[in-house]
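Example with several molecule types.
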Amino acid sequence: MKAGTPARLKGLVVTSVTIYDIAKQAGVGLGTVSRVLNNNPHVRPETRARVIGAMEELGYHPAAMARGLARQRSDTIGVIVPFFTRPFFVEVLKGIQDAALGYNKDIILYSVLQRGQKNVYFERIPRERKVDGAIVVTLRVHDEHVESFIRRGMPLVLVDTENAGADSLVVDNMHGAETAVRHLLSLGHRRIGFVNGLLRYRASQERLKGYQDGLRGAGIPYDPALVVETEYDRESGRAGMGKLWEQHWERHTGRPPTAIFAASDVQAIGVIEFLQSKGIRVPQAVAVVGYDDIELSKYLGITTIRQPMYEMGRRAMELLVNRLEERRGSRPSSQSSPDGRPPTERIVFTPELVVRYSCGSRPAANGDPISIRLFSDV
Amino acid sequence: MKAGTPARLKGLVVTSVTIYDIAKQAGVGLGTVSRVLNNNPHVRPETRARVIGAMEELGYHPAAMARGLARQRSDTIGVIVPFFTRPFFVEVLKGIQDAALGYNKDIILYSVLQRGQKNVYFERIPRERKVDGAIVVTLRVHDEHVESFIRRGMPLVLVDTENAGADSLVVDNMHGAETAVRHLLSLGHRRIGFVNGLLRYRASQERLKGYQDGLRGAGIPYDPALVVETEYDRESGRAGMGKLWEQHWERHTGRPPTAIFAASDVQAIGVIEFLQSKGIRVPQAVAVVGYDDIELSKYLGITTIRQPMYEMGRRAMELLVNRLEERRGSRPSSQSSPDGRPPTERIVFTPELVVRYSCGSRPAANGDPISIRLFSDV
DNA sequence: ATATATCATGGAAGGGGTTCCAAAACCTTC
DNA sequence: GAAGGTTTTGGAACCCCTTCCATGATATAT
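Resulting structure tokens for the full complex:
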């Protein structure tokens, strides 16, 4: 039996229909079947019809792996995300998925649980070439890893994180923070506290900058005593507010703030819990603005800054697919930059203010807040 | 140039290192390299060392697609989920992912947005063989589709859905509902309303049964006037409670219920909103128990029934991997049932009661509920 | 030392597609 | 009807591994 004429004599296991079976059935050569499969125009209509007939009759569908091996392309995209419980990741993923469907790409989810995990993926993925490209969400990517993707011709798109070597989609944190502060200023607040995230995160630095810019715009001097730094979670937000409380309410160090801007909604929730536990009413006595627009915020009526998460996911996939295509298009030459690579794109998204009730700028829906109580589950 | 000696003369594109390069570099044959790769013991230690050395030197990693084609196995699992915004899917997925990592499997996420989508996947996946098996979450699967997976030797595991032809992991809805009702009974409630889901969902039927059983156990006759059926969402829950209100409070048709069991937490939230909008306090005047334990419930202090979502995902992957292995193990014979297939497993999970504050059985954390208000964002 | 069993090794033959070149078939045109 | 151009078609070579058989090398028994 010559090579190129696969055996059909397996055991009881159903051996799948191959291109050879189709060729025989339709009385044509391999090339022709392949051409039909790939919509190559160089096939006579009658022939094409015969081939398609054979494929339907035998219930044929090309084997993804064989195809992938031959054309060196899997039509699968890797998505690397931190363990995706947070709404942010879920939303971004949703956008990615949605777009992927339109491009006929499948996505493999590489989710990172532990610290080391991330680098294992970054090393394995470009080598094993199971995917044609990858989208990284939030995780910081080292230059060497970006390089190893690019060198193998695998495009990389970063969402909510950056690296000069790859395309990235980011949110303008400064602008978001400034918007939040401006909103509070517009409501007449002059003493605005800030429960920020830890400054070792870039996002926190940017949000601080935005906070300062917002104040400066209104001619209000920056007062470090109004700012605390905490982890991005509820408990920490609560504790952070606790610090501000001690300083400004208990010890009367200067006038207490009349508004708090929290760098995330979960922190905002902690802040509100703390305030209310001290009998300080939100928004009547202190207004609160959060950041993220997590689902909970809608339910709790928290005014916040919304990041276009879904949209970012969608665009990321779009960009990735474009890269894949431009790579296939230009074989040897290209209109790219001197180093032989097309220039990198950096798309900045502008977050938007979502006004609800925690800042007191407008009353709740039907005049009165509906009074489901949020209990502390400590 | 003979076949089997791939050309290394591509353009500028980095051509990846192959097994041939390693063989040459280490001065051994292909077979030996492959054996080293697959931990085949029939390799002299020195030889093995040389091969490994060559692999490291050249930065070799086997190409996933080629490997997949050769061994007819991709080490990739398909996960088919309804568009996974709901916490239930996210949690199950998390469990699946977590387990997958341990088995060195990747997962491709097939998420179903539209109605038709589902069947497209069920037809395409077994034909293209990009994955070795699949886990289906919640979606109903037709017999013919189960069949087409099995026929191709691709195991199928169903989570939160059933089909006699495949393994399935389900939750005991009856038990869950009965538990909720028993809890309310134990607190002294005798008139318990039930805001159920639509009866066309199997889950709703089971929960209704559980509700009835619970009452019967306490010798309380079933009163259909206390039961309404609504869609599984917040608005519907609210409307459903509205109906009960009209009937029992407004028109005084019999004593009003002192407790409500809702078939999902989102419905429970709607119920609470409605009650409070009428000035009826929860839990003081009416106790409420939900179902699902979504994240929100923790924040709102809703007593609910928790399904072991993460655990189900984990077990599903475990089961799938076992199936894959037992399939590889027994080539011709097997200790399977007469039709040549191993019997199908059906694993039932028991949901558990999570007691919080919406049923009044215990006070909130520090004695007083913290009064963040939940505003209605209508 | 010889016969025999055991282990290590090389490499052809797949796995199921795509690509590309050369040959065949079909049109035009003079 | 021959020459020249265009399409259509067949199939070898290749994508990169695994599998398995045959061969050579080594160890064990006689």
